[in-house]
Amino acid sequence: MAAKRKQVIRPNLGGTLRPQAEAPRRQFLYTDVTKAEHDRIQQYCVDRQISVSQFLAELVLREASRPKAKRKEKVTVRAEFELAPEELDKLELLTRLHQKESIGEYIRDLVRPELELQRVHTPLETMSLRFYLSAEEHEKVKKHIESTGISARNYGAMLALRELAKKPRKRKQLNFTGFFLFRPS
After folding, report:
1. Which string of b and e fits 148-177 if b means at least 16 CB within 10 Å?
2. What are phi and psi of 177, to 5 degrees?
3. Which pLDDT value is given to residue 116?
4. Whose CA is closest to 91, among 73, 74, 79, 77?
């Protein structure tokens, strides 16, 4: 009895390909994603008829091409989470005892040591995705990723998840509500 083979999904079937680089794309980078993230990325690529490699490469190249000055400006983060009234009282008390102006300042000080780590590690069960770059693209991306202080295996996944979190743009849909007249022959 023959074993069933898993059907291969080709997300870029019928889609547009990346523009041809000056040199062949023989260099590659890996990014680590969880199974759930992989499924979301795969579906995103199927919907847009692009390969996973093309999706990841374009994200990383776009980010590497952005001016550095833009990345230095501060960003305000607003976290929302639910607490019981007693927990909120304790949080306000901790904020006062640590001599902070606000709960946000107290939470920022709690998170800052994790953000200052050189490399971020967590015990996630992941799978690797590979994306291809030309030698020139690879060098540009490698320099950019080194300047961020985030590992290359996590950087691509971070950009992909950020892209997936964006609200989808509404695509123009053709509306064929008209009717056709047929003449009897």
Report:
1. eebbbbbbbbbbbeeeeeeeeeeeeeeeee
2. -95, -5
3. 75
4. 79
- Global pTM reads 0.62
Secondary structure, 3-state, the chain: CCCCCCCCCCCCCCCCCCCCCCCCCCEEEEEEECHHHHHHHHHHHHHHCCCHHHHHHHHHHHHHHCCHHHHHCCCCCCCCCCCCHHHHHHHHHHHHHCCCCCHHHHHHHHHHHHHCCCCCCCCCCCEEEEEEECHHHHHHHHHHHHHHCCCHHHHHHHHHHHHHHCCCCCCCCCCCCCCCCCCCC
Residue corresponding to tokens 């929302």: 80
Task: Determine the Cα–Cα distance for residues 185 and 55; give it in Å rounded to an integer.
Answer: 52
Provide the pLDDT confidence category of residue 79 given band limits of 50, 70 and 90: confident
Q: Residue 3: pLDDT above 70?
A: no
In the numeric block, the tokens 């590690």 are attached to 121
Question: What is the overall mean pLDDT for the chain?
Answer: 79
pLDDT in tens, 127-162: 888 888 888 888 888 998 888 878 888 889 999 999
